[in-house]
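Follow-up to my earlier ticket, as requested here are the two runs.
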Amino acid sequence: MSSPAIEVEHLVKTFGDHRAVDDVSFTVPQGTVLGLLGPNGAGKTTTVRMLTTLTRPTSGTARVAGHDVVREPDRVRRSMGLTGQAATVDELLTGRENLRLIGALYGLSSSYVKRASEDLLERFSLTDAADRIVKTYSGGMRRRLDLAVSLVATPPVLFLDEPTTGLDPRSRVELWEVLRTLVKDGTTLLLTTQYLEEADQLADRIVVIDRGTIIAEGTALELKDRSGRASLVLTVSHAHDLPAAEALLRTRVSEVHVDEAARQLTSPAEGLRDMTRIAAVFEDSQIELDDLGLKRPSLDDVFLHLTGHRAEDTTERDSSDTTEEQAS
């Protein structure tokens, strides 16, 4: 069995008396995506900076592609790519020139860099804009170029620190498709995000971090199941049928929540079998339905269940994360 692409054991980072990262441990198998999920100030960026050799851990160990981040920083850097929260490409160069510059800095042959640049420009839908200076690019184009630059040396491990921050919904979805293609081709991703939908869409496993500490880990489905049962949601076509629908539903379930404004009835459900059973009951009635579906808890519900607050409620940046970002 191949070794993990990323191994983190009891990682700690302190700034004075403040523990920005507190005894964090996880592994990322090769060719998978780990979502490091948490609000601003949770310690996500500090963790990434330690794993990418930009910050030295206070204690604990971490290995990237089998190399220790403290004892073998040069080998770690040759094995990974990093895309930070802000695009770091040179705005006064063209897209093609940015790619070739990074290739030269890596010491790669000019023939290889030329081929790789053309391939990356095509892969990231930037061929038509390759010879335009980057300051004319849209936000989504800059993020795609930033990601392309991090792949010039074909690293097996890629760290993405909130890569879709500031992008419009369309650009975000386009970038997700690019990331899925990278994983399909064998790249291992560690993705930090405060967007719950992003972790749900991309991550094979999710580590939830809050105030520097891991509070939960698992697949999106496992985490959702931890926060409560699924719900059956039934929407009647006509508001005057709502009382009759409630009465009929209560003959099959003991708990029903009524939302008159939305014409909806909600009750706990174990799964698709419950939905099929209730559908059959209403099929034999005279009550018309607009919709009948099964709703699982969202990752936002998970975060609320685990921390007592929703992710978006935490807006103040952790001072250590801010200090680290300013130093980079």
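Run two:
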Amino acid sequence: MSDLIQLTAADLAAKLAAREVSSVEATQAHLDRIAAVDGELHAFLATDAEASLAAARTIDERRAAGEQLGELAGVPLAIKDVLVTTDMPSTSGSKILEGYRSPFDATVVAKARAAGLVNIGKTNMDEFAMGSATENSAYGPTHNQWDATRVPGGSGGGSAVAVGAFEAPLALGSDTGGSIRQPAALTGTVGVKPTYGGVSRYGAIALASSLDQVGPCARTVLDTALLHDVVAGHDWHDSTSLDVSWPSMAAAARSGVDPATLQGLRVGVVKQLMIDGLQPGVKARFDESIALLQAQGAEIVEIDAPHFEYAVAAYYLILPAEASSNLAKYDSVRFGLRVTPQGGGTVEGVMSETRAAGFGAEVKRRIILGTYALSAGYYDAYYGSAQKVRTLIQRDFAAAFEQVDVIASPTAPTTAWTLGTHSGDPMQDYLNDATTIPANLAGLPGMSLPIGTANEDGLPVGLQLMAPAFEDARLYRAGAAIEQLISDRDGAPFWAQAPSLAGVPTRKAVA
């Protein structure tokens, strides 16, 4: 059944609908793949083969009975462990939630189940989504499927590797400052951060509530769009959820398959996002992609966004401040880990011991920073000033989109670095989000898609596209056209070009 894992989600869905293959067969094939390679990659924190196969069997029975099912019914789905589920533990990559079982599903998980998708496991992540490498997980790092000595990006490296290594055709992630898009870039996959409020956050374990957004991950633009359509929409459980009608993202992706759709597209290149420290191979692939767009009739416009250079500084005040508040609930009293000092102790003592034992170094760092930024006498100077910068960045975006349809940039300044390289130097991780953070501060949709590999190391490079709020479909239309350009240039889809893992079918054989 190895051929089943090499199908795109769209192709697998078509075979399932035609009853050429069963969901049980597809699910088993991906579970077998996980068993074969995840010991090396560690993309998953939890799987439950019995529960997954039972869910797949139910879909097969419903289809055999003639029931009309959703387009993705029976397709396996991996879920970032930041999203709570009833059938598997939900830890957010932290010891403080080790073994925690949620009494309810996150809204996006419930929507996926209703659409017939089959949960095959919870994916690894930086603890509470704090990190850019999936090295901060309390349960050990995830390894990049292109090179197991390299990081997969973060915080959602598990979801990106799961789809990139053919362990799942689709995955859900969350993006607070680039946690879907940056891992997509480093693993050669596709990831989308929807417009803020376009996808429910109910049941997503909160990091920074004004920045967090749930979104889809896959190997192709169309697959990502199909999952986006499943999870998008208003949810009364989420006070930030937008009560608007969304167009079909899949229809937009399908309409963009012809690169001729790029004719006349105005593409902005923000000079402040062409940051110092761009790896030469990253810049070369980006420049080549812009040239490809121009050759197809797109208009390239240089954009000046003067406040973007302050985005990282503002973000690393807003995020820790909100995280400090959100993580106060992990107090040893209501749920999660409880550590009792020898001889008992006060509530305050138990709380202190529990948080000391349950939180990792990066989480503690950000809680301390955020608590300080919110403290009396410093609120206006730090958190308040950062929010003012955020408004200026939003205005820069508004001015830019008066001139262009989409903005393009490198998704990440470098390719995947070696595991452990940034240990003890969190600033290196923080700067890796320099190009993705602005979209979160402004609440805008962003996509990363692969555009080739860097000459220096042969590792994937991602192109980021950003669009105005509510224009997620514009990203899928443009992204599908660019994806086709890259495929035509290379003679194969990008996902079919990665090197093989030992003992498993090569990706080049799929080309």
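The only thing I checked on run two: Residues 505-511 have pLDDT under 50 and may be disordered. Let me know what else you need.
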